[in-house]
Design a protein that fits this description.
GO molecular function: helicase activity; hydrolase activity
Number of helices: 37
Structural class: alpha/beta
Shape: globular
Keywords: ATP-binding, Helicase, Hydrolase, Nucleotide-binding
Protein name: P-loop containing nucleoside triphosphate hydrolase protein
Strand order of the largest sheet: 12-17-11-18-19-10-20
Strand content: 5-15%
Oligomer: single chain
Radius of gyration: 35 Å
Number of strands: 41
Largest sheet: 7 strands, parallel
Length: 1201
């Protein structure tokens, strides 16, 4: 009985925690605790002078009170999320007041012709589906605009923010059936349901800020308000450890222990004894790691600094294993350990190590790129637990939700239905009088089917009734130049705002459309007619007394008034719907909590943003321990807001000398607001107890020497001093680091990003040299501070003929935190003309500099203007002077001679100062090779590091050509040929024979393979005729073939690589192909599918479509619809898509087409050879097409799986 009572009490406590975190109670008044989750119009419309009153964020002294601390964190963080939009709206108002053009600029994006098209009633809440027009055509797949979670401000076209400002959040921005439409569509969530717009004809203007990202702070703001409602007890040692101080350190042992007593002492170690466990010779932990681990598992607050290569993640994983082993010793059902990281990549890495240790995990969030994480998502875990329909209460809420949707639909139908307005609705809302209503219901009026269908207004309008689409089509949708925005951070930018992974790809729900089907014709000779239409309505009790020419205008006025009259009711229904959705979310969180305990999940992981986004669920678990990786990159407010009342232990692991928190509003990151100072850094600077890991295992000693000024007592582990573990960079003569100085002038691109063309070319040629000397391209990383330089470097590398087929690691410094590689090349870019003064931009940021100089294991080479670095300003002189002198005192710089290379064959030293110095360098020196090739010819090249077997011979070839018996006219390293008629005839006959050969996969067409493996299943009695949409004799490349004959040949490469190529190129062609499809559905291309997506038209034509070609087979009309997704098309002859994008799906299963399914084997991957077919007139000869061309042959893959 006691156990049952205890269970009831625990359950009630969890219920209360979840509800308090979903239904946040705000205080009354105007203080920070009373502010709603979504900013109000008042905040967005603040003038600059009104917006300057922010509290200071003290980072060099303790706070006097918890209230002051939380208020400062809240107000500064909220301003960071809203300041960009506030400034953008004020800029729009200023331009409007001064008659200036409202164009996109450096502060904002302006969207016009904005209309609310419908509402999507999702489980997340009601989403307004909005159509809009940007000021230029956007490459949405490469654009950072309208990121989910972005804050928007809307006003009417007429008001221009004078009195109307509606705040909304982007809920999702799907491409298919969304941004790919004309006009584009995006789903918004209103900040206040009372702001909801239900009039499609109301034209709005929408403003998006270029700076600031509200979603990154949104959930933390709510968490800070909740933190103010709870108290934390301060205790050096957590109470759960006081109660059970015996901990198990045996998981750190890396070898079997024969000493049973020692093993027992590790399993029953008293953590309060003050001593460290004796594991020095039986674990991989160095002394500093062991001290850190001891503090992590025993103290209320543990701060662990891990310089580059010192094993931060390894130490965290060892601590987690000890915590979990000790957790099993405590009685009862213990809550899981919560782990978090700033980035999804770091989180997956940490959880991956937990999996390796057989730990049962759960991962929150849907942004993992690792397939091995997918089974541990919340959605997959629910599915495996077969939670069914969610129980009686869940079904009740779903019934309430659908009832609400039906009420919304019914009310909308009364306004926007297929018929004309019901006059009784107008009378009920006081829009027309009793007399006007009766005038429409004359008993002597003749009835007709049309009158009964469309209502009394049909007869009254007469010829003035027109389809509403006619008026909508009058407004041209025009965009100017095509724009591809700068690269944006996919780490946080593309996921929608759903709480549930079930909705991670797309939030779905019933769509309630708002558009009128019918409307009235406007008087053609008046531009402004609304006032007269109102007067005519007031003056005529008998509506038939209104002149026929004006009835259409009056009807439009009546439509508008009815929308206005019903808007408060609709807004109330939406508010009720939001409440139901919150109850549903709370119930799901509560059920998930029970699932975690029933499955005995030991570790739950999420990003630091997820700590507050999933707060209801996580706080309801009542966790005791929270471990945060990359804590020095996490904003203080994000951590403070995640300190749930139950927490007794906080472990912060990071390095404040590397990347600091990201602040989107620069002035808020600086003094006195200090938003870019993390809690980790602040506590370390306040001399809180912390431990620094001090043995680095990444860099060669000469490389760690460069980093050492930024870390006291950083030591080299013995492993990095071994020549076998860290060999010299080949071709550099033992110079494993170098600072190359130049004075090449920088440039600025259209995105206002910096680049340096000559520096990029020098790095490219050095990259070529390293590869020629045997360094794998995958083992080289190029870092730069600027996206413009990154793009330029990638373009140069991909375009260099010696690097065909190579893999390139080119990153910005900011995105490479936590990564490493054998060789790192750093491009500093900045080198302004002396007349403009010295300037290094944000190269003076020490955090970025430390990341940049600490990524290499074996070789590190910097390229930049030393004079500019040392003379720009005092801060840069101190920072880069220290780095430069670390190169100089090792003799690793020569500003006069440049970059030294050492030939591996002859030991000669070559100096490279200018681009011309590379000349025809092939990875060696200037001497001639003179060795004999395997073919017998002497090598005529300069000294090179590449083996002769991999270099084509350029000597004349005298072999006999088998096709004609003549001597070869080509070079030794080329395919033999002779320029004679007999040779050409033999080659033509051989090609024809290859195409006709159907005895093997080589040369087979798709139909050949289908027929061979069971084409009778498709109703074929004889081989199928191929339909061709090409013009005979038109010279074109095979890539442009449509419905034409395409010879196929086996593919030698791995089939997974083929699928990746298909998916990549398919995405690039989405925009072009979408224009050709009348109607299509989307499906992802899964590896487990037996077929690529195919289509079937209603006339029975089965279409197998690749990104470029379409093959067809005639099918019987009664072909069964055996699809895993809907497979419909609107008519025959429609060009349908396939691949990873969209298209009507026809997916044969093995049970229905067993013979066809047999085709689906990995070795049957095929690629198209060149064919002469007509090029379509669709403008597809674009950059994507040119990238596919290679020596006169297109390489395009079709996966037969």
């Amino acid at each position: 009985m006691a156990n049952r009572d205890e269970w009831i009490q625990v359950s009630a406590t969890r219920d209360e925690i979840v509800r308090s975190n979903v239904f946040v109670k705000l205080e009354d008044g105007d203080g920070w605790r009373s502010k709603p989750e979504i900013p109000t119009a008042k905040e967005i419309l603040l003038l600059q002078k009104e917006a300057e009153g922010l509290p200071e964020n003290h980072v060099k002294q303790p706070w006097k009170s918890k209230e002051d601390y939380l208020e400062a964190q809240y107000e500064i963080l909220r301003r960071e999320g809203t300041e960009g939009l506030r400034f953008a709206v004020n800029n729009y108002i200023y331009n409007s007041n001064h008659g200036l053009r409202q164009d996109d600029d450096e502060h904002k994006f302006v969207y016009t012709q904005v209309r609310v098209k419908s509402y999507v009633m999702t489980a997340l809440g009601p989403l307004a589906r909005v159509e809009f027009m940007p000021q230029r055509a956007i490459k949405w797949l490469k654009s950072g605009r309208l990121k989910p979670g972005s804050l928007l401000a809307l006003t009417t076209k007429a008001d221009k923010f004078k009195t109307i400002c509606k705040v909304a959040v982007v809920a999702q921005r799907p491409y298919l059936f969304g941004l790919d439409q004309t006009p584009p569509l995006v789903d918004l969530m209103w900040g206040n349901p009372e702001d909801a717009v239900f009039d499609y004809d109301l034209e709005l203007v929408m403003i998006e800020a270029r700076h600031g990202y509200f979603e990154s702070s949104r959930h933390s703001l709510v968490g800070l308000q909740l933190a103010a409602q709870t108290d934390h007890k301060k205790d050096e040692t957590p109470s759960f450890i006081h109660q059970n101080p015996i901990m198990d350190f045996s998981p750190v042992v890396r070898q079997p222990l024969a000493d049973f007593e020692k093993l027992k002492s590790l399993r029953d170690f008293n953590i309060l004894s003050g001593a460290l466990p004796d594991v020095e010779d039986i674990s991989l932990l160095d002394p500093s790691q062991l001290s850190a681990l001891h503090r992590m598992v025993s103290k209320e607050l543990a701060i662990i600094q891990g310089p580059p290569g010192t094993g931060k993640t390894f130490t965290s994983v060892e601590a987690i294993k000890v915590m979990l082993a000790s957790r099993r010793k405590r009685p009862g059902r213990n809550p899981p350990l919560i782990v978090a990281a700033q980035t999804n990549h770091a989180l997956d890495q940490l959880l991956g190590h937990c999996l390796d240790a057989n730990v049962k995990i759960l991962r929150l969030g849907s942004r993992s790129d690792r397939e091995d994480m997918r089974p541990y998502s919340l959605y997959e875990t629910r599915r495996k637990c077969s939670r069914g329909g969610g129980g009686k209460r869940f079904r009740e809420l779903e019934d309430d939700r659908h009832t609400n949707i039906n009420r919304v639909q019914a009310l909308v139908n009364s306004v926007f239905g297929d018929s004309l307005i019901d006059p009784r609705e107008l009378h009920a809302h006081g829009i027309i009088t009793e007399a006007q209503l009766e005038s429409l219901y004359d008993e002597e009026m003749e009835t007709s089917p049309e009158l009964e269908k469309l209502g009394p207004f049909s007869l009254w309008l007469g010829d003035s009734r027109i389809p509403a689409q006619i008026i909508r089509d009058r407004q041209p949708l025009v965009s100017e130049t095509l724009e591809a925005d700068e690269d944006f951070d996919y780490e946080r930018d593309v996921e929608n705002i759903a709480y549930d992974e079930e909705d991670a790809d797309r939030i779905n729900g019933r769509e309630v459309k708002l558009m009128h089907v019918w409307t009235g014709k406007e008087p053609g000779h008046f531009k402004s007619w609304n006032h007269r239409a109102q007067r005519l309505l007031r003056e005529n009790d008998n509506l038939f007394d209104i002149p026929q020419d004006w009835r259409g205008a009056v009807y439009q006025h009546l439509q508008s008034k009815l929308v206005q009259a019903t808007t408060p009711t609709l807004a109330g229904l939406l508010a009720k719907y939001v409440e139901i959705c919150k109850q549903r979310r709370a119930l799901k969180a509560r059920q998930d909590i029970d699932m975690v305990f029933s499955q005995d999940i030991a570790v739950i992981g999420c990003t630091t943003t997820g700590l507050t986004k999933y707060r209801a669920f996580l706080a309801g678990l009542q966790p005791l321990t929270l471990l945060i990786e990359e804590a020095a990159e996490t904003r203080e407010g994000n951590i403070t807001s995640a300190l749930y009342p139950s927490l007794q232990q906080l472990v912060l692991v990071g390095d404040h000398a590397q990347m600091s928190p990201r602040c989107d509003i620069r002035w808020l990151g600086e003094h006195p607001y200090n938003l870019n100072v993390s809690l980790f850094e602040r506590l370390v600077n306040l001399d809180m107890n912390h431990i620094m890991l001090n043995q680095q295992r990444r860099m060669r000693p000469e490389l760690s020497h460069i980093v050492s000024p930024f870390y006291k007592n950083l030591q080299d582990h013995s492993s990095v001093q071994s020549p076998q573990a860290r060999p010299d960079v080949p071709g550099m003569g033992g110079r494993n680091c170098w600072f190359f100085d130049h004075e090449w002038v920088e440039e600025t691109n259209s995105d206002n990003s910096k680049l340096n063309d000559q520096e990029a070319e020098m790095i490219t040629l050095f990259f070529v040299y390293l590869v020629a000397n045997g360094v794998s391209s995958e083992k080289i990383t190029i870092l730069t501070y600027y996206r413009g330089q990154r793009s330029l470097l990638l373009r140069n590398l991909k375009g260099h003929p010696s690097l065909t087929g190579c893999y390139f690691n080119v990153f910005t410094v900011d995105s490479y935190q936590g990564e490493e590689n054998d060789v790192v090349l750093l491009s500093l870019v900045r080198s302004p003309l002396p007349a403009y003064g010295r300037n290094i931009g944000f190269l003076d940021n020490q955090h970025r500099a430390v990341v940049a100089i600490s990524r290499a294991r074996q070789g590190f080479y910097i390229f930049g203007n030393v004079t500019n670095l040392l003379e720009a300003k005092i801060e840069s002189s101190v920072l880069w002077g220290s780095i430069f002198h670390r190169f100089a005192d090792q003799g690793m710089v020569n500003r006069e001679l440049g970059l030294p290379l050492v030939c591996q064959n002859h030991g000669n030293e070559i100096w490279i100062k200018e681009l011309e110095d590379w000349a025809d360098n092939a990875g060696g020196c200037d001497e001639r090779c003179l060795e004999t090739r395997p073919c017998g010819h002497p090598c005529t090249l300069r000294c090179h590091a590449i083996a002769h077997e991999n270099l084509p011979c350029s000597s004349p070839c005298f072999r006999i050509v088998p096709e004609c018996g003549h001597s070869c006219h080509g070079l030794c390293g080329e395919r033999c040929f002779h320029d004679c008629e007999r040779f050409r005839q033999e080659k033509a006959l051989a090609k024809q024979a290859q195409r006709q050969d159907t005895s093997s996969p080589k040369g087979k067409t798709i139909e050949d393979l289908l027929l061979q493996h069971g084409a009778h299943d498709f109703g074929h009695e004889e081989p199928v005729k191929r339909k061709s949409g090409t013009s005979a004799g038109s010279p074109a490349r095979g890539l442009y073939s449509h419905l034409g004959e395409m010879p196929l040949r086996p593919l030698d490469d791995n089939w997974k690589n083929a699928e990746a190529v298909i998916q990549q190129k398919d995405r690039e062609l989405d925009g072009e192909l979408a224009k050709r499809n009348e109607k299509w559905f989307s499906q992802r291309h899964h590896v487990q599918d037996k077929w690529m997506p195919t289509g079937i038209t209603t006339s029975g034509i089965r279409v197998r479509a690749g990104p470029i070609i379409t093959q067809t087979l005639q099918l019987p009309n009664d072909l069964p619809a055996m699809t895993t997704t809907t497979a419909l098309a609107t008519g025959s002859g429609i060009p349908l898509r396939a691949g990873s994008g969209a298209g009507p799906i026809f997916a044969p299963t093995s049970s229905q087409f067993p013979n066809i399914a047999a085709v689906a084997q990995p070795e049957l991957l095929i690629e198209f050879e060149q064919d002469n077919s007509a090029a379509p007139e669709s403008g597809m000869a674009n950059e994507t097409t040119r990238e596919l061309e290679d020596n006169g042959e297109e390489k395009w893959l079709i996966d037969f799986e």
